[in-house]
Design brief:
Order of helices and strands: HHHHHHHHHHHH
Shape: elongated
Strand content: under 5%
Number of helices: 12
Largest sheet: none
Distance between the termini: 69 Å
């Protein structure tokens, strides 16, 4: 009954159906394809947000759901941005991380920062984005406030960032402006500071 009325003319009815399907979770998997089709034509911001969250809870086919999420990633409405972020986080990192790395190359700074924010929430699963995030930080040294978004995401991904930072530091020229890199180690607590100290002990030119 719910599946057959997904495209009901009444906004209130559709909203109730979206919510009900979302609460059913994987048990509503049989309706996921039709719900995804309905998303393509849903114009109401609130209803679209609810439907995206519901489809994420159901567990949609990732090969089909991710392209739709990519198509609305640049939407400016807060509700849609939040629903899209939550839905992306529900997907397999093997599917979502490459997509988010691509968004780091977008022209719009807000799209870049949203992608970085989601990658940070992924924790260690976001590790493939560590080197691209370093590039984002390097390119924003003239604007430290913008760089902070990517620095926070880098540290939030977790301890896998330590060897990446150490590798970066090992390759920079002595006396180059790279204080941001050493400063990031503080975000890892004592483990980060200890790792930096050990690196400096073995590399006098970087001291």
């Amino acid at each position: 009954l719910l599946k057959s009325n997904i495209d009901h003319n009444s906004d209130l009815t559709r909203k109730a159906i979206y919510i009900a399907l979302g609460k059913m979770g994987h048990r509503a998997n049989g309706a996921s394809k039709k719900l995804l089709e309905q998303l393509q034509s849903e114009k109401d911001v609130e209803l679209l947000s609810v439907a995206v969250e519901s489809l994420a809870n159901i567990g949609a086919d990732q090969e089909s759901f991710l392209p739709f999420l990519e198509s609305i990633f640049d939407r400016e409405e807060d509700q849609i941005q939040q629903a899209t972020a939550n839905a992306i986080l529900s997907l397999s990192p093997a599917h979502s991380v490459p997509s988010l790395i691509q968004f780091l190359n977008a022209d719009d700074e807000s799209i870049k920062s949203r992608a970085a924010h989601i990658l940070g929430h992924m924790g260690p699963s976001g590790a493939p984005a560590l080197n691209p995030l370093i590039e984002m930080i390097i390119n924003r040294q003239a604007n430290p406030e913008k760089a902070k978004t990517y620095q926070k995401a880098f540290v939030a991904i977790g301890l896998k960032g330590i060897p990446v930072l150490l590798d970066y530091i090992s390759k920079i020229e002595p006396f180059s402006p790279s204080h941001w890199a050493t400063g990031l180690f503080a975000g890892y607590g004592m483990m980060g500071v200890s790792s930096l100290e050990k690196s400096l002990e073995t590399n006098e030119s970087k001291r």
